Amino acid sequence: MTDAEDARLARELATAAARRLLEIRAENPGVEGKALKDLGDQGAQAVLAARLAELAPGDAVLSEEAADSEVRLNADRVWIIDPLDGTREYSEGRDDWAVHIALVVKGELALGAVALGGPDEVLVSSELDGHAPARGGRVRIAVSRSRAPELVQSVSASLDAELVPMGSAGVKICSVVRGEADAYVHGGGQYEWDSAAPVAVARAAGLYTSRLDGSELVYNQPNPYLPDLVVCRPELRDEVMTSIRAALASQAD
Fold first, then answer.
1. Out of 17, 31, 207, 220, which residue is the most buried by the measure of CB atoms under 10 Å away?
2. Distance between CA atoms of 141 and 166, rounded to whole angstroms?
3. Could you tell me the CA-to-CA distances from 18 to 14, 27, 35, 143, 233 in Å, in that order?
4. Residue 33: which region, alpha, beta or left (left: phi > 0; alpha: psi -120 to 50)?
5. Distance of alpha carbon 232 from alpha carbon 241, whole angstroms
6. Is 69 exposed, middle or buried (CB count within 10 Å of its CB: 0-12, 13-18, 19+)?
7. How many CB atoms lie within 10 A of CB 134?
8. How far apart are CA 45 and CA 20, in angstroms?
9. What is the pLDDT of residue 105?
10. Phi–psi pair at 102, nearest 5 degrees
11. Where are the alpha helices (DSSP H) in the chain?
12. pLDDT of residue 253
């Protein structure tokens, strides 16, 4: 496939899965909690698996909702997908959930598409030419809707930042692209499918991305556990990373 064909497919996959997720919620008005989460996960996975088998039959796939295979480690092209990022938000009828579609080509993260809360807003990395401008005022850090972890609280205090609660990891990363937040710092455990697509979007938009220690985020590894990440506006990189180093050092004492 050409780069343009890959981008069209990524958008189509994200859109189709997001549309199906809304249909599932509408079809099951009396279902909630874990039962609705499971229906969403399974329904979106079925759509993505069928489309990929039809439209990209020679490509390998790593999905949160499917059994892993070592075949992907020797494949030139690997789709890394999360059919439903933010199951809690989805099951509560909120819109701060996402569908993640990423493509790794010869070991490099080449493409990402993220559907945000439905099929109407899909960010595709190859279609971006920058991120939203800074709003000014205090730095804003995207955090989970539950209590912010100690690391993020320390970073926030150091930067005199405002914490902005929101749902899924994809939504948090894309909030920096869209100018709703200035940074997202996570150290609590994630997998490759949680970040691959939105990180591709963030990189294409010109944002800084790394692990907490400043090393590069690398995808399609034998163990897909990728527990920590940083996404921020490039002009904040030094301040954010200095704050993270100080917070980690304090925790280690």
1. 17
2. 10
3. 6, 14, 18, 23, 28
4. left
5. 10
6. exposed
7. 13
8. 10
9. 98
10. -125, 155
11. 3-27, 33-55, 87-91, 150-159, 169-177, 192-204, 237-252
12. 65
What CA–CA distance (Å, rounded) separates 100 from 244?
27
The Cα-based distances of 181 to 45, 146, 161, 210 in angstroms read: 30, 17, 10, 17
CA nearest to 129, candidates 62, 196, 205, 71: 205
In this structure, how many other beta carbons lie within 10 angstroms of the beta carbon of residue 95? Answer: 15
- Helices and strands in the chain, H and E counts: 7, 10
Helix 237-252 and helix 150-159, axial crossing angle in degrees, nearest 10: 130
Nearest to 200 by CA among 142, 98, 123, 85: 123
The predicted structure's pLDDT at residue 147: 67
pLDDT of res. 135: 85
* Those residues with Cβ within 8 angstroms of residue 5's Cβ, 6 or more apart along the chain or in another chain: none
Q: How far is CA 201 from CA 142, 198, 205, in A?
A: 16, 5, 6
Q: Are strands 140-143 and 183-186 parallel, antiparallel or unpaired?
A: parallel
Tell me 164's DSSP state. E
How much is the pLDDT for 146? 76
Residue 250 structure tokens: 């304090």
